[in-house]
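pls design
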């Protein structure tokens, strides 16, 4: 499997079928998800968890994309990106931030590939919240007998520490 990308950000692919060429057989897209327990994060300055201690908050809000069509007898292409809302908190010391996220490719419960991306965010003066659309991520998925686009699940998630993930899971209960 090949995961190719431009400098990137988060997240991909409509679950519906799509055509790359009207004369070509319909290509079924993989299913894409933002993993709920890893779709948001708050970074604090270490002095506490009050809003005044917030350095940065980020939330994945959408995954968008489409199929690119068959790339050969045994490959299908897809592309897409993520959309996130990023908030600069009162404890931030600058106007720039990097938000890390991950794309995992899964088939039959097995993680086949995983790639990390970073979205660089620049906040204009007097702006503390931005919606950011990441650049396209291109995927090449092997296909063949019994394996097509819907055989794959694409999971997008923020790059969290184990402590951040545990906090999100506690919050969800």
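designed seq:
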């Amino acid at each position: 499997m090949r995961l190719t990308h431009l400098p990137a950000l988060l997240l991909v692919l409509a679950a519906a079928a799509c055509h790359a060429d009207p004369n070509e057989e319909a290509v079924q897209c993989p299913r894409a998800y933002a993993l709920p327990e890893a779709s948001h994060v708050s970074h604090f300055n270490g002095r506490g968890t009050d809003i005044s201690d917030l350095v940065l908050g980020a939330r994945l809000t959408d995954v968008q994309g489409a199929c690119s069509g068959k790339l050969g007898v045994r490959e299908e292409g897809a592309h897409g990106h993520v959309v996130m809302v990023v908030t600069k908190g009162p404890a931030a010391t600058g106007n720039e931030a990097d938000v890390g996220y991950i794309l995992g490719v899964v088939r039959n419960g097995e993680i086949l590939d995983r790639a990390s991306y970073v979205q660089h965010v620049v906040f204009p003066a007097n702006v503390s919240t931005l919606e950011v659309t990441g650049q396209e991520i291109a995927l090449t998925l092997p296909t063949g007998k019994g394996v097509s686009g819907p055989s794959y699940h694409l999971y997008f998630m923020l790059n969290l520490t184990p402590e951040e993930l545990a906090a999100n899971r506690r919050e969800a209960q």
